[in-house]
């Protein structure tokens, strides 16, 4: 794919992302919001592919567009499906904050090295060692894997511990409720358990 | 979702391939994009799809919650034990060079074990979280959405 084609894809994906974001802001029906959030994640995954970050795109598509959407729908089934209008400060003050923060971020990008610049400080410190070592010492063609699992094994161990802890936390907070309810209501096991979050979602 | 014939048939055809693709991403992560995290969530997504289309009870029958309670710590334990195998064999913590005869084979073995641990914990946590949410939800009428 030539540079022009990539630019075209990038612009199209970013425009669709903006449409999704605005639609999420405007929508009051939370089912639509959850579906749009899934679409937003899928478009982000597409952008990550154009950045050659296929590993991240995989995760974004599976977690963001897949499982998170299902969990959001499951939450909606528990918590109600319409957003309540809140009376408070109008939209102008938050908009000003967002615009100021966005302008500051865009201003900061002018100091950043160009995308993919091999002479950027981040690429020169230890990265050449990893790239050479991944081929000669580890023999793994996918450098992402060798960095993640071997060079940065401590970090990944920590990440897995974080996921483990999060999972245990959710299981403690939410996982036991079903059995308690059955005992209390005397409901048959199927009645409480069958309605998976979005099972009947249209 | 029992009367959605198309969804049921298409999901039934797709789910085996989703699970197979997850295993490919898991064990081919050394050579192509992917690894334990990606494989774990893809595997869990296949299960979640099954539970959405066919109901939570058949999914619980296929992958019971007690088994998940074992798998969630098992992956982390596999990772940690692989790490401690290094010092036991005369290396450092999470040093895979000493796991096999020559360092490169040791690195391959270590990465394979560690990534498998990641995949097991991630997929088990994802499915557990889904069960936890789904178990609290009463059935919703289609008109209510």
Detailed description of the structure:
- The complex is a heterodimer of chains A (202) and B (145).
- Chain A has 202 residues and is mostly helical.
- Chain A contains ten helices and no strands.
- Chain A has helices spanning 3-26, 30-50, 54-79, 92-109, 121-124, 127-138, 143-151, 153-174, 177-185, 189-193.
- In chain A, helix 1 (3-26) runs antiparallel to helix 2, helix 2 (30-50) packs antiparallel against helix 3 and helix 7 packs across helix 8 (153-174).
- Chain B is mostly helical and 145 residues long.
- The longest helix of chain B has 34 residues, at 103-136.
- Chain B is elongated and about 60 Å long.
- In chain B, 49% of the residues are buried.
- The model of chain B has no long low-confidence stretch (mean pLDDT 86).
- Chains A and B meet through helix 3, helix 7, helix 8 and helix 10 of A and helix 2, helix 3, helix 4 and helix 5 of B.
Q: Could you give the topology of this structure?
A:
The complex is a heterodimer of chains A (202) and B (145).
Chain A: H1 3-26, H2 30-50, H3 54-79, H4 92-109, H5 121-124, H6 127-138, H7 143-151, H8 153-174, H9 177-185, H10 189-193
Helix pairs in contact in A: 1-2, 2-3, 6-7, 7-8
Chain B: H1 5-27, H2 36-54, H3 56-62, H4 65-88, H5 103-136
């Amino acid at each position: 794919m030539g540079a022009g084609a990539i630019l075209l894809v990038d612009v199209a994906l970013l425009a669709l992302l903006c449409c999704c974001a605005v639609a999420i802001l405007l929508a009051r029906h939370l089912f639509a919001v959850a579906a749009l959030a899934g679409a937003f994640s899928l478009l982000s995954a597409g952008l990550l592919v154009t950045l050659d970050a296929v590993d991240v795109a995989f995760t974004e598509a599976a977690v963001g567009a897949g499982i998170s959407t299902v969990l959001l729908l499951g939450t909606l089934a528990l918590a109600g499906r319409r957003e309540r209008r809140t009376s408070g400060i109008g939209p102008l003050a938050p908009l000003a904050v967002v615009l100021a923060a966005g302008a500051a971020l865009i201003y900061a990008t002018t100091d950043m090295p160009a995308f993919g610049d091999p002479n950027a400080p981040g690429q020169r410190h230890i990265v050449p060692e990893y790239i050479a070592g991944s081929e000669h010492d580890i023999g793994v063609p996918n450098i992402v894997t060798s960095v993640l699992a071997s060079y940065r094994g401590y970090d990944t161990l920590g990440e897995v511990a974080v996921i483990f802890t999060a999972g245990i936390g959710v299981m403690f907070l939410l996982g036991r409720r079903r059995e308690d309810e059955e005992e209390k209501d005397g409901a048959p096991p199927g009645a409480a358990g069958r309605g998976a979050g979005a099972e009947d979602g249209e | 979702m029992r009367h959605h014939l198309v969804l049921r048939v298409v999901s039934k055809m797709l789910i085996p391939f989703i699970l197979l693709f997850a295993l490919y991403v898991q064990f081919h992560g050394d050579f192509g994009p992917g690894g334990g995290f990606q494989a774990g969530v893809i595997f869990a997504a296949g299960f979640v799809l099954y539970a959405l289309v066919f109901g939570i009870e058949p999914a619980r029958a296929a992958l019971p919650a007690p088994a998940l309670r074992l798998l969630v710590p098992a992956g982390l334990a596999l990772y940690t034990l692989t790490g401690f195998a290094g010092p036991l064999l005369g290396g450092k913590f999470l040093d895979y060079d000493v796991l096999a005869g020559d360092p490169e084979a040791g690195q391959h073995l270590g990465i394979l074990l560690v990534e498998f641990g990641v995949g097991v914990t991630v997929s088990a946590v994802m499915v557990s979280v889904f069960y936890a949410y789904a178990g609290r939800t009463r059935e919703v009428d289609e008109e209510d959405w």
